[in-house]
Amino acid sequence: MNDEKAKEVVSQPQLLTFTEAITATKADNASEVKNLQITRATYSKREEDGHEVVTLTTSGLVDRYIADNDNPDVFVKSKSKTFVVSLFSLVGAMSQMKDAQVLAGRISKRPVLVESLLPGSTITVLQREVKANVPFMNYFSGKENTIDHDSVVTDIADIKLGEFALSTLDAYKQNLAAALMGDL
Length: 184
Hints:
By secondary structure, this protein is α+β, with helices and mostly antiparallel strands. It contains six helices and seven strands, in the order H-H-E-E-E-H-H-H-E-E-E-E-H. It is 32% helix and 37% strand. A hairpin with a 7-residue loop joins strand 2 (52-67) and strand 3 (75-86).
């Protein structure tokens, strides 16, 4: 993203639509990794800042900075099947799917559901490198962030739900329809 456009986004903090956040992230030199099948998902809320994140393990490798074994204060760029994404980008990606909006709403209210619903789903992620202590924009939250070490920020750009999530969604819709019709 050019300096003028970046300053404009930072000076006007606003929550972007999912599509706008994806466009801004891509314009900010993000690389795209497609067709990653999720094998494991773990929800957590970070104590230091309250940020809600999902740790994903996938079938493919993505860029990531990992603490060096000899010096844990030094982070080294490598490839990994495990990485962290913001709950914001996950719910945003799900909200773009016509049928998955209901599931996105349920996950927003009860994020731990990602642990059972996401395995088997396929995602596309966007990755941006950020330098230590240099502010960068999180386009999904509309907030400027700083990380104390070089890092790769990963956001979900697209998701295709796996078989279990789709069957859960179908069952939820059937139960909701039955409740609305007075059959439950």
